[in-house]
Amino acid sequence: MSASDLPDELWARVLELGAASSALGFRDLCSIAIASRRLGRLSVYPALWSKLLSRDFPSQSEPSTSSASTSQPPPQRLHPKSLYKTKFERHKVRMAEARRRAVFEAEARVLASRRRLVELEESIREEGERMKTAAQELDNLERVRRASVALNVWQPQVVRGRQKQLVQQCTVPVDSRLSDLNMELKVCKQQIATYKNAYSKEKHKLNDCEEALKRAKYHPLQDSHTSGTINEPRAKRKKLK
């Protein structure tokens, strides 16, 4: 017995079992429908599309109403295939909206990470300027301290006069100020190290956010269609049309 000898009831049952067991999807069913006239007729059986409806949209299935509980005739219901198409189109819209929200959220995370990197760069620059100023002042005070010590040692008058001038121009207590500057340099170095560590982590975070944004924007069908259309010669595209 060949496959063409099987009765319609058996073929319908096979398709129904395939839909109920997730072995047959709506795309497979649409492909089967164009295989032959017989399969095209069998593929529109209401029971078959009802199985797909209850499987793919379980939370959106309409509850069955009993016609015996009311005197009015039941309203004309849509064919399960039409109902499936309506629900599928709504599902596509919801998925597209969710994808757009995911893209917007990923873009917001990328922008926030870039702003954070700019803030950290500015903080590192400010701490660097502060450390440079403290180091310069520390160098000047070290020269004053050496000059103050050298005043107690015999030296030529010209050198002694320069050292005395340095000591007289200094208006702050040298020893206490040197201690403060050394502490300030230490704090600046620690702060710069902290900022650089945070910058490195934020850089990795930005890379992750940019990869997530690429994944959110990626659409297999659109991207493959676009790339194929752009790269193909004009004459070849005309033939394909």
Itemize the secondary structure elements and their pairings.
Blueprint: H1 8-20, H2 26-33, H3 37-42, H4 46-56, H5 80-150, H6 157-169, H7 174-217, H8 220-231, H9 234-240
Helix pairs in contact: 1-4, 4-5, 5-6, 5-7
Overview of this protein structure:
- The protein has 241 residues and is mainly α.
- It has 9 helices and no strands.
- The protein has helices spanning 8-20, 26-33, 37-42, 46-56, 80-150, 157-169, 174-217, 220-231, 234-240.
- Helix 4 (46-56) packs parallel to helix 5 and helix 5 crosses helix 6 (157-169).
- The radius of gyration is 40 Å and the shape is rod-shaped.
- The two termini are 42 Å apart.
- 8% of the residues are buried.
Feature tags:
single chain, 241 residues, mainly alpha, Helix Hairpins, 2 domains, rod-shaped
Structure summarized in a few sentences:
It comes from Zea mays. The protein is an all-alpha fold. The protein is built from 9 helices and no strands.
